[in-house]
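dumping these here so i dont lose them again. two proteins, back to back, each one seq then structure tokens. dont judge the mess
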Amino acid sequence: MGRMTREKTATPARPVPPQLKWMTLPLLLELVSNGIGLLTLPFAQEQLIAQLQRTLPQLGVENLELSPALLQSTLWTTFFILMALTLLLYFVREGVKEGKGWAWIMSILIGVFSLLNLPFGPLIGLALLYGAFQPEVRAYFGR
């Protein structure tokens, strides 16, 4: 018995606008930054302790004993949150390159939240927002 194969009809590919790099490059910078953060996180325990010891008295908390288990769970929680954000950035960047509508929306959200991330976040956020609202880019996403 012969196998029947279904031929896929090739849909014409939309041309990728050159302005799309205003979105893909900032997302790549965020992705690399988060990757570096993940790699350096295991070495951040002593810095975390020092930062907490400086911050707690300012909050009015005196003589708080920081257990190793509490610090370890804080580092693991931070690791998993940073890993999830890194994966999100990766998939959003891939979606942007493919012209997916959800990736355009996520890029705008990432751009807005990046505006709050000092010192370099505002530059990344502005670049993302600038790129997302270019007419050629909007047309690429079907907006």
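---- next one ----
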Amino acid sequence: MTRFLVATMPIPGHIAPFAPVVRALIARGHQVAWYGSRFHQDKIEATGATFYPIQNALDFGDSDYNKHFPERTRYSGLKQVVFDFKHLFVGSAEGQVKDLRHVISDFKAEVLLSDPAVVAGLVLGNEGFPHAMLDISVLSFESKDLAAFGLGLLPDSSFFGRIRNKITYWMVDHVVFREVNQAYRNIAQKNGWQYAPFRPTPSRYLTLQPTTPEFEYPVSDLPDTVHFIGPLLPDRPRAFTPPIWWNEVVNKTRPVVLVTQGTIATHADELIQPTLEGLASEDVLVIATTGGPSLSFPVPQNARVEAFVPFTELMPHVDVFVTNGGYGGITIALANGVPVVSAGTTEDKMEVSNRVQFSGVGLNLKTNRPRPEQVRQAIQQVLQGSYGQQAKKIQKAFAATRSAETAVELLEELARTGKPVLNSRAAGTLSRKTAIQ
């Protein structure tokens, strides 16, 4: 039996991927403590984990970021991303480290599992505490074959492409996120932490990537500790009360299009409105999930609107999924063989949307606010093209994985050895070197 400590940022989308792993750890007889937001306490405790609240860092788990940081409203686009990285992520680091040291001592934790945005995870890992990372988005680590994460550039492993890629890392570190890196450098120096530019970095011990290579860019230098484990999908709800229009979906006579606005960028006029307007005269059934807010614009006759419907129940009946690029929703769609139309450019959404088009499972509209006609044409193209066939191929690849079980086995190996857990390519290279010597 091992005592595992899980640490997640106070952001709703960072909770769901960890829940299946935590439940699987507990089912194997391990003890789990979970450090996170009081706003997420019910969801955390529902897994069976012992809850430890954020104490010395800001708990913005209510997702009202502008309330906590009023000056944030002065920024938009990339400037707001820089603000968020500086204040939400880097600004939480000192408090997180203090909190996690306390939990480790109180709970007698032996292994830490964190999400990539928890800066304290890398800090403690650099100090030698066994640290695993569970990625919550697409592969984002530095590679000579990829441009810096967040720029939305496609991979290029050619000679000139690799020069381009190298330049982008310098630009991100020293220009785009110069202010963020300066803030992090100051905090690291103050506390005696090892410093590296603040951008996605794999754990030196173990990184779990919740997908399969079929939905990722091919890279020739995958970090040695990164393991593809397959998708971590939410459990089906124990109780589900179908909406009054449910029979229209289950016994459908026309294509079903699902559109969602996500959990962070929740302005319905960005994606839901143009989707409803663009499909108003089409022979399709449109299901829109708003995440809570009611719509301030007319709803066409062929549309059904709900604050929330469990995607585990709805997605098997969907023909096209329209999204602003949320990784969790797209993962559920592909696990059900549903092709995607993605329209998002904030957070990690450019990168996720690029993978949608690169892998052949859908289209990337490359905007937060597509025109109604743009959405309509994209959906028609997806319905008529080979995108659904490619989505079914990834569905098959997903189905062949044992994601939570694999994650637990890798975490148990880290707990047993206290050493980096190498992927098959790195382990094979090491074996060949040993044989030669």
